[in-house]
Design goal:
By secondary structure, the chain is mainly alpha-helical.
Length: about 240
């Protein structure tokens, strides 16, 4: 009898659960039908207006984290796309004396007058700054490289004035690169500083030139004599307006 009572109660509760479940299912089906009906109305209208249909999940994600703006090269500052032009020392004018020397050197060494302009301007500027004769600087160019800015010796001397970079990094500057001394303006500036350094160390032009040529032990000072002879020839050219 007791078992029968328990069974009745179980059947009663099961029936109640099934009733509630069926009722909930009908409500859910009704909601889904209503949602489908609304979507069928909204979707054609959105498509007709050209509006995108965004899911609720996508809309929530975009609300939480807005999309990143696109970055284009055109939006970069112009300074980052193109380096500012470097002002060349060739913008300055040569003195009449150095103009005559330029013409002479171009003919004798078969070098473009245009290519000679920048280093000769730098020679005049360095000579004024350091208290040197510009023709001395030009004479060193003639002896060292015959005015070839890309010349390089077996011991590593580079450029117009054949400067050895490992000995003169302090004169080249903090931005020195392996190609720095192949720039004519840089090379002439550094070469003039080396001449001045020799004068400061040894007190005479001959000794300074021997120091420059790495020949301090040469008692005959042959390197210095070659440079001074070329300087004298250039001085004759500079003095003659018809040279």
């Amino acid at each position: 009898m007791k078992n029968a009572t328990v069974m009745k109660r179980a059947i009663f509760h099961s029936g109640a659960f099934l009733k509630h479940f069926a009722h909930g299912s009908l409500i859910a089906l009704g909601l889904l039908s209503a949602a489908a009906l609304v979507a069928s109305v909204i979707e054609p209208q959105s498509a007709a207006r050209g509006l995108p249909i965004v899911s609720l999940a996508q809309a929530h994600a975009e609300a939480v984290m807005p999309p990143r703006p696109m970055v284009e090269l055109a939006d970069e500052p112009e300074a980052l796309l193109q380096a500012p032009p470097v002002v060349a020392t060739a913008d300055a004018e040569l003195s009449p004396e150095l103009e005559r020397v330029r013409s002479y050197v171009a003919r004798r060494y078969r070098v473009s007058q245009t290519a000679l302009l920048r280093p000769l301007v730098r020679a005049e500027q360095s000579a004024e700054e350091l208290g040197l004769d510009p023709l001395l600087i030009v004479a060193v160019m003639a002896i060292e490289s015959s005015f070839n800015p890309m010349a390089e010796s077996t011991v590593g001397a580079q450029g117009l004035m054949q400067v050895i970079p490992r000995f003169h990094q302090d004169k080249i500057g903090p931005d020195a690169t392996p190609e720095s001394l192949f720039d004519p303006v840089t090379n002439v500036r550094v070469g003039a500083l080396v001449i001045q350094e020799g004068l400061r160390r040894y007190g005479s032009l001959q000794s300074a030139l021997q120091y420059y040529g790495g020949a301090l032990r040469d008692e005959n000072a042959r390197y210095a004599k070659k440079v001074l002879s070329m300087q004298a020839r250039l001085a004759e050219v500079a003095a003659k307006s018809d040279a």
